[in-house]
Write the structure tokens for this entry.
Amino acid sequence: MLNFISRNLAWLGHDCFRISGEKTIYFDPFQLGKTATADLIFITHEHFDHCSPEDVKKIQGENTILVGTEDVLARLAGKKQAVKVGDRLTMDGIQVEVLPAYNIGKKFHPKASGWVGYIVTVEGKRIYHAGDTDRIPEMKGLKADIALLPVSGTYVMTPQEAAQAALDIKPQVAIPMHFGSIVGQTSDAEKFRDSLAGKIKVVVLKRGGN
Ligand SMILES: [Zn+2]
């Protein structure tokens, strides 16, 4: 799993990851430099730091498929695949599951908006990108080998809440995100890692791969 992470998974800052394999997959492209063209771009919700038309353009080729909810896709041009919570589908040979992402007791990401997280299966590994979310009941028992979880607090989970969420999910490896750009510091990622010491392997990725 750690080999897969160092070889195939790049954190490009905030909630943006690139998975390279048979396909090149991005989540929530934001503040990108020059980087590889995408086969699939997954967007979790319409906030500017997740749905950035200018960053989508930087990695979009003729055949790139943009994946998101209807409200997100309305802001973007290109080949599109609309999804909603609960969907399971295969796109460009990649298995995709669409999970809910929402706040509990905060106003930023209402459940009613229908915004999402994703599980994609790459090289047999189930990778969960949680989107902007709190610790929600749907996380319990969700099957993921790698879980990408927001840890900054404010709009999403605090490091402690994210650690509880990781214990609900029990991935082989958890990777913190949503820090170092808009809100949250590396220290939040380290708090997340330290609260899971001896329980779940946490990898704090260095921003790179642009
Ligand atoms: Zn948001």
Remarks:
- Residues 2-202 form a domain with the Metallo-beta-lactamase; Chain A fold (CATH 3.60.15.10).
